[in-house]
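ugh ok fine here u go
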Amino acid sequence: MRKVCVVTGSRAEYGLLSRLMNLIQDDPELSLQIIVTNMHLSKDFGLTYREIEKDGFHIDKKVNMLLSSDTANATAKSVGLAVLGFADSFEELRPDLLVVLGDRYEILAAVTTALLFRIPVAHLHGGEVTEGAYDDSMRHAITKMSHLHFTSSDDHRNRVIQLGEDPDRVFNVGAIGLDNIKHIKLLSKEELEGSLGFKITNKCVLVTFHPATLDNESPETQMKSLLAALESIADLQIIFTLPNSDTNGRIIIKMINDFVEKNSNRSISFPSLGQIRYLSVLQYINAVVGNSSSGIIEVPSFGIPTLDIGDRQKGRLRAGSVINCPAESDVIRKKLIMLLSPEFKKNSDNIANPYYKKNTAFEILSKIKNANLNDLVKKRFYNILNEEFSE
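structure:
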């Protein structure tokens, strides 16, 4: 029986992987292993490993790595702690294949360790570009240490091949989060409001803002501009989800908490909404604001606009319902008022999502189930220049 190990370190990533995890768990020819790490194990970020257990999964290993500080020094040390923890986990679990998603530093630690253990890696969402964060470099590094690639568009597939990966190992399957939406029963508005303890009116936005780790302007300055714009629209309701455990993220958390305390009549914050509540919220709000990848990848499928702030997601493929603006309060306010207009909402209703393909999770399952793992860790560099000259 093939042992397939899934690594997850954040609430958003688990939400994307959960359907694939269910499919692996239900397949009689596969054995699912789960390693949780980073934010899942932190009280500050909601101890979200409990959601994984609540969903009926058995967690095989917990890799504690997150320090109480979010400085560059602490983040680098967290990566080192993660490598130590993954080494012990792989030594015991001995997976046949590792499945990872995205670009975060805990995933970089996982695949670095897997390389030394000669464990083949299946990587989701490679080939994408986010110029405003160091996640961009991590994503490409993860690609080079992975062996099967599942991209979310043809452009991203071509970019992975450009990085020297064999085209026979690179598959455009679409964004797995969009496939999940088709198979999840979402909450009614009454159920959602009861769960949130918050009434959603006819002018409500969901805000998620993470540090742009390569930006010259501080996260504190950018967040101050965003909060000023939100506060200036008096009848606007705001649901905040708190940022990831990136460098300088804790100052953003404090600023959000201070804002909510001051504006408790129209705002609320959550370390994690969880997959069902997060997707359910998207049914009843007017826009998503911030700089998360979800605002660009999943949100357009709900027919609502996204205001993408700053350069964190610069370079990402995006639908016509996604508008970018600099992290300046006056510009944010102006663009947000435009997005909240009935005209812009009407234009967003029928926008095609460039990340969508049918049966994404099944396509990935089929490939990881049937892939020949013999010598998969041996890779040749696929030189596109040689291919061009041979034509």
